[in-house]
Design a protein that fits this description.
By secondary structure, this protein is mainly alpha-helical. The protein contains 19 helices and two strands.
Length: 467
């Protein structure tokens, strides 16, 4: 009864937001930021790799690489494995092209929102906190809007998205190992509790260990599959572009389906413009806000152009996407089995366990920093942690369709609010970027001062160089 009521509400709301508001907003704002930053995602691409391994200046906060792994932990999850399969299953191979497009222009959007998070971050003991809720209050003076966004993000990432992650783990392990969903749920709850009750430093230690290893191994497997099927690669790319722009798809409405699914799953995976990654970006201890903006821009490339493409290539080269009967993680497992044999489902199940579990940890942190924004009392944090664990258990035992639809709805609402806000604040990020570029051209290691931008308010972490 409750599930039917939720389906009745969630479906139409999703269609309205994604069809009439969000896709156009994402594309237009991403293109606007791309031009206003003079194609920052291309011009400073090499610089991003240099900055990701830069050391922090003091013991406060976390390093640029650690902040990157927190955000990557949330980004690199079910969207990269199950989400890509769903997009291809519903929207066809053309959805992959639109994933690439939303990622390339989303890199500029990610730069802007993460730079703003750095500019308006706050000191919290020996750590930093920040994100959209913080710059809504400090830059625009809209604390109530910040609270509304913080509640939405907490519900979205701490609860709904974590249910998506545990749901995918549960579905995968039941299919491969035959383990009951309630057993998987209990194990996930235990592991999650051990980490999240240890604070941000324990979260950092886990993510900086898991993320590089799991991503590298997954990419190597995908590279092996591509090399083994190298003769089919030109036909695969032809298939992607034909379905993205083909006459047949135009007549049948397939282009719209491909675009819709590509943008949805691309945004779910790389989170550019959604307002989630800035929460991780703000934790970094850097000498200039643009540095972490560039690092998080690279995160979009890493997530979608590399990891999502790896999954797409595995699926398309297997040729099972249009056979019917399988979608999501099951399609990815079946496709992998075509390439490497009977052990493939076990590999995917283990891979999704690490991908999705790291996302649970990253998602939890996003909610934590927003609970702090709303009310820093410890009792609220305890309630939040218990609720997160309950949602992890619920997700492991729920039906996949409703969970994904609810994730789309909450993601869409968050993105609309954040995109409008960063559009209003974009000039601050543009000026910060220009300050960074001027110092780099002068051969300096850029150091930001609040007074470098006349009239800048609310950037107390940058007012006296004490970070």
């Amino acid at each position: 009864m409750i599930e039917n009521a939720l389906n009745w509400l969630v479906g139409p709301a999703n269609n309205f937001i994604w069809t009439y508001i969000l896709i156009g907003l994402l594309l237009l704002i991403g293109i606007w930021f791309t031009f206003k930053t003079k194609f920052v995602q291309i011009r400073l691409f090499k610089e991003m790799f240099r900055l990701i391994f830069e050391k922090k200046d003091s013991n406060d906060g976390v390093s640029p690489f650690q902040a990157f792994t927190i955000s990557a932990a949330s980004r690199v999850g079910t969207g990269n494995v199950a989400g890509v399969a769903l997009a291809i299953g519903i929207g066809g191979p053309g959805a992959v092209f639109w994933m690439w497009i939303i990622a390339l222009i989303g890199m500029a959007t990610a730069f802007v929102e993460s730079t703003l998070a750095q500019v308006y971050k706050v000191k919290d003991g020996n750590t930093f906190r920040g994100g959209p809720a913080y710059y809504m209050q400090k830059a625009l003076g809209f604390r109530k809007l910040g609270i509304a966004f913080a509640i939405l993000l907490t519900l979205c990432f701490g609860f709904i998205f974590n249910a998506v992650q545990s749901n995918t783990i549960s579905q995968s392990f039941m299919n491969v190992f035959g383990i009951p969903d309630w057993t998987i749920g209990l194990v996930l709850v235990l592991l999650t509790a051990i980490i999240i009750f240890g604070g941000v430093q324990r979260i950092v230690k886990v993510t900086q260990f898991i993320v590089p290893i799991m991503a590298t191994f997954y990419l190597l497997i995908a590279l092996f599959i591509v090399v083994m099927n190298i003769s089919e690669v030109p036909a695969m790319f032809k298939l992607i572009f034909e379905h993205a722009f083909g006459i047949k798809e135009m007549v049948g409405g397939g282009i719209g389906a491909a675009m819709m699914q590509g943008v949805r799953r691309g945004l779910f995976s790389n989170e550019a413009g959604m307002g989630s990654v800035p929460n991780a970006a703000a934790t970094a201890n850097v000498s200039h806000p643009a540095k972490q903006g560039l690092v998080q821009s690279l995160g979009v490339f890493f997530d979608t152009i590399m990891i999502c493409s790896a999954t797409a290539f595995i699926i398309l080269l297997a040729g099972l996407y249009d056979k019917g009967g399988q979608d999501g993680i099951l399609l990815t497992q079946a496709s992998m089995e075509v390439h490497v044999g009977a052990w493939a489902p076990y590999f995917i199940a283990i891979a999704i366990m690490f991908f999705a579990f790291s996302s649970i940890i990253g998602n939890y942190y996003y909610g934590e920093t927003n609970i702090e924004f709303i009310n820093a009392h410890k009792s609220w944090m305890i309630i939040y942690r218990v609720a997160v664990l309950a949602m992890v258990m619920f997700g492991a035992m729920a039906k996949v369709a409703l969970i994904w639809d609810m994730a789309d709805l909450f993601m869409g609402l968050m993105a609309v609010i954040n995109l409008v806000v960063i559009l209003l604040l974009g000039n601050v990020a543009f000026k910060v970027l220009e300050d960074f570029r001027m110092q780099r051209r002068a051969g300096l290691n850029p150091v930001f001062k609040a007074e470098s931008i006349p009239g800048l308010k609310g950037a107390e972490c940058w007012e006296d160089q004490k970070k």
